[in-house]
Amino acid sequence: MIPAHAVKRGTIYESVEPGRLVRIHGQSPWGATVYELQKLRCHLCGEIFTASAPPSVGQDKYDAASASMIALLKYGSGLPFNRLERLQGSLGIPLPAATQWEIVRHAGENLAAVLQQRASALGRPIQMCDALSRNVPKAFETILGHCLTHGRRQFVDVATHFPDECLYVLQILKDVYRNDAVARDQQMSPEEHLVFHQAQS
Fold this sequence. Notes:
By secondary structure, the protein is mainly alpha-helical. The chain has eight helices and four strands. The chain has a domain at 61-104.
């Protein structure tokens, strides 16, 4: 609303970007809706009849968005499945680590569907992943770049059991990470970055 006294003074108003208010609320990474279906037992034959679920419920327990959230938190933010399981359990919506793994282990199949849309004239794409065989699409050739950070983490996890062997590997990888930092600081192109690692790492 424009103040009346401002109009009388001949002030000209123009539209500007409206002010916005943001209110943050906490929520679980995965929400759930529980449907309780009424059951009736026949007194004559003993058979139990269960009410049908609403049509909007669908057949899938986990929708596509829930699978995407698992992938984003695990592979995009580095949150382990076990930690996500504890978080969800404490919030009353259990999501076991094994279930999370089952939901997102179709990486190779999903990547194949994406590559099918890719122009055939293009060269082989570089695929960054861990060494799990399910991550590799069967029908398409890619240039595999296994995740060094993922591999290093495996040695860190067992370092208390094999200190000498793991320390040897971690010391070597330290040089690789240092070279990577040098390449970034010098703003090398991807091709220069590769040649530098091949020579120094």
